[in-house]
Fold:
Amino acid sequence: MRRAGVLMLLGVAVLAGCQSEPRIQQRDGQTLEAAIDAAIKRAPRREVASATKAREAFVEAFITHPRAELPSAEAVVGMRLDEFIRFTTRTLGSGDNRVYAPTVDPLAPDPVRNASLLRTLQLDRDLLDLARSRAQQTGRFTVDQFEWPKPAFVPPAEGALGVDDHATFAFTFVNHTELDVYNPVFHLTVTLPSGEVVFDDNLKGPEEKSNDRTPIPPEQPTLLQFTCCNIATAPLVNQVMHQLPLDAQFDYTLVSIDDYTRRNKLDTEGFTSGRYERLKAIDECIADVEGRVTTWTPESAVPACRVERGEGGRSSSRRRR
Structure:
């Protein structure tokens, strides 16, 4: 009898394991609605009704008739279904998240609107923090763990010959992880004041054999040098680098970095560089609104509050020459 009871408990445990919480995974070419529906089909029976109700509310508010004060709809990609239900309920099921009517004078301070904006920004920040935590929990590095302030641009030397006739970029690179890292790869975009992009490619790192890679230890600023535009392989771009105006814009993007396994461990799907830039802007905007909730207006906002809601696939640091 005892053995039968044990077998029954084991059977229940197996069934529970088979009904692990599904995630919203959006495949190539699949709509977000279809991805949510697929997750609901895999949900435990007890959760189907609440998940379906959350799905209907989400599609209406985020996709069919999107509301400007809500986070991006794609923020739910990767969520477990129970997280999706809690997120949708919290975001749409509370009177605190309704859209407030504008004041008679749209330029006048509106404390009620400002408080609503703060809640939306804080929710957006929570979602970005969640994406970052998930990436790091799976063993990935995230872009915010590295720093490369103000890389120095050295144009090609006048009269240089052959292999030495190239542009050089000097980085002071700081690794804020707890591990040695190797072989960072940067993408550079150079834009003229006219808006013309004159360079858009990865920079060339130092030539090293795979067994002689130099580690970048934690919390020790390390000087790195990269090059591009050698006269022999890119003569036209080399000439452009010779003549760049002082107000040309340089956008440096970290696109890859290895751990000890010699594999790229930089997360470029969950907590992307674009999301990191968005997180920094949100933090700055929250500080601006919190500091003057009763007097803040969109017209008086810091530039970070006017950042568009679009997200890129990578995040970069920008500077003028």
